[in-house]
Amino acid sequence: MSTQMQETKLPANDPMIIDGTAYQSRLLVGTGKYENLHQAKQAIDISGAEIITMAVRRTNIGQKKDEPNLLDILSPDDYTYLPNTAGCYSADEAVRTCRLARELLDGHSLVKLEVLGDEKTLFPDVAQTYKAAEILIKEGFKIMVYTNDDPIAAKRLEEMGCVAVMPLAAPIGSGLGIRNPYNIATIVENANVPILVDAGVGTASDAAIAMELGCDGLLMQTAIAGAKDPLLMASAMKKAVQAGREAYHAGRIPRKRYATASSPVDGLFF
Amino acid sequence: MEITLNGETRQLPDDFTAAQLVDLLDLGGKRMAMEINQEIVPRSTFNNTTIHPGDTIEIVGAIGGG
Known about the structure:
heterodimer, A: 270 residues, 9 helices, B: five-stranded mixed beta sheet, 1 helix, 5 strands
């Protein structure tokens, strides 16, 4: 009797392509909020992430000289860095930050653009985001852009030339999960660039839902670094992203209001 | 001359260059980026970049973030 397993349909090689570069991992993670850089590296390696974010801030001058540097612990030779513009509330601030990041990383032009509108919600200021994107694209930056779960804004940012569009699931750090799955699905349907859910994921099931909706990937930070056990959550997120991707390819059954029996009715003996 | 470095007022000798400032701060070989008056100063031009009185200089590095 043949016991040969039928091969699963998901191609072993199912890369996420961003601006012509193939990535095997669809999970992008942040490098902040960990106990220390050693824990950050452990969590990142467990998550399998190839693209990791960083922030640009004033260098310590004269103090904490021996403090380990992010780029020494997590070398740009081993990971693709995605410098962010976190903390920027205007297009000008975001543009300056990206220019400094490119200089800092020896000409590396892939950036995460986020222009925030409000400290309480950290929702994006989409008008300022458009403005910054326009300037940065002209200067040759490759932009992965944080935006609202708004299909119109997402399409506009794609048309401007952003290499990936990253709608939020919920406010940054909120852990509320995907608040508007219908909008995320619409954004995915309309898109010709990768769509990644960025921000608001709380636990593994949230990540799986994003992937089941057809998102190309996910970017998260607090959900892992803020978990009671960040390393275990990094592992959970890796699996959730893979499971969600497989389920997306597998094609879920339609939702129905009433039951369909799982065992045959034929052959009942009563 | 007086300049502002990372938000703080600082005295520097006259005719100081960006390269001299990097040495003074012991940042040689470190991963950093500089802007003067909101304009990027590429590392390759540090030697030829003269700092002027009243300049606002920012020196930044990479830190963990999401």
